[in-house]
Fold:
Amino acid sequence: MATAEPPSDSPEAARAPCPLNAVPAPAVRRLSLYLQQLEGFLKQGRQTISSRQLGESLGYTDAQVRKDLAYFGQFGHPGIGYQVEALIERIRSILGTDRTWSAVVVGAGHLGQALFRYRGFVAKGFELVAIFDTDPAKIGSRLGDPPALEVLSLDRLGDVVRERGVEIGIVTVPAEHAQEVTDLLLESGVRGILNFAPASLVVPDGVPVTSVALAVHLEQLAFRIRARRGEVEPGG
Amino acid sequence: MATAEPPSDSPEAARAPCPLNAVPAPAVRRLSLYLQQLEGFLKQGRQTISSRQLGESLGYTDAQVRKDLAYFGQFGHPGIGYQVEALIERIRSILGTDRTWSAVVVGAGHLGQALFRYRGFVAKGFELVAIFDTDPAKIGSRLGDPPALEVLSLDRLGDVVRERGVEIGIVTVPAEHAQEVTDLLLESGVRGILNFAPASLVVPDGVPVTSVALAVHLEQLAFRIRARRGEVEPGG
DNA sequence: GCTTGTGAAACGTTTCACAGCA
DNA sequence: TGCTGTGAAACGTTTCACAAGC
Structure:
């Protein structure tokens, strides 16, 4: 098992504060949310922002914000706060979205098509370069009014992934096919999986997988609504 | 602020193990995943399952599974494990999805339409009863081939929520309108929000909100792919 | 043999509190 | 005064380890 090890000769950085692997996952998740908020603040014309203001806008403490950012270096100014624009660039560079990532969608059902046609990804650094299906009725049909990209046969997945350097695969097939599609994506050279199927995927050790089970989110809501009302679960 | 308090006269249950509020959020999230796996095991004809087997299928330890379930009572059998069908029913009853919850979708863009037409929610106990938009070009158009439900004007939101007892609102509008739509949903009587807009929502204390920012998930993947490669973040 | 349920230990994350700086 | 960055304390979650039961 090859363990990732950071290069010891960082070219221009004297202070690499800590290896990416040592950063807690919750902190990385919040980093994305900070970025989202900062982009909003920038639109409003804000030039600087304090950890307290940024935290409050998301329901976190100021200390939380500072700790999270400190994992990656120190780019705040005591007495002033953080420069909004510079912090945005720094977070993008930390997340790796200062360049464009290519992704493919497998499964041209309603959800797959909706994701494929969603405009918001490009601004965030993601380009959905192709959508695949196995249904002959869908293959060849064109999606999206101006771009008119064609639904491709799954047979062509490997070619597209290699030719376009695709690193992310988005799975929007029914649960019973999610595993085989995942295997195919990883064989084709994809490095990480975003899974919308209500299924748990088995992947080689260390391969990043994120599952977005929509029903799970609704169940969490239902539970919390009931909990708030004080509805206690009695023994059945 | 009214704090939820459990009724002291649980009708047929002598042992209500612990108030719902005291259960850690991560445990509740896993409960949904256990349910998902158990439904799969049931389809395969499994009658009983051990905490180890259930945990392994999701990448958790056996102790984790037992601890999570123990928050809600004891329904396993030493030496045997858990009865799959009974455990499914128990988890549904804990999550509250042993009955149907009504939800509405606000925002009839690609994502909103895709969610609205997604068949999988009904089996999980959720019925999407209406979809709303403010765009006159969309209002009145019919979605879905057999059911042909109409996109309604947002003006009618309050009526529908009251008439159909809707408890969950799903927000799929652009970020700049997410807050006003949320306010409107809560005024109409909705109890919890599932938010797909890339924005942080402000709601009264205690109102359950779950945000599913798709770009955030992609950013997490990008970070983890880079971290795995050992690409360290140098000082900019 | 196998399994559950659970107190206690280990671990990780968040919050506190304050030195240092503008 | 206001703010950052950070060690230390507080808190919450996960894992361990084992008694009890099938």
Q: What stands out?
A: Residues 24, 26-27, 60-61, 63-64, 67, 77-80 of chain A lie near DNA strand C (CB under 10 Å from a C1'). The first helix of chain A runs from residue 25 to 43. Residues 75 and 90 of chain A are 9 Å apart (CA to CA). DSSP finds nine helices and nine strands in chain A.
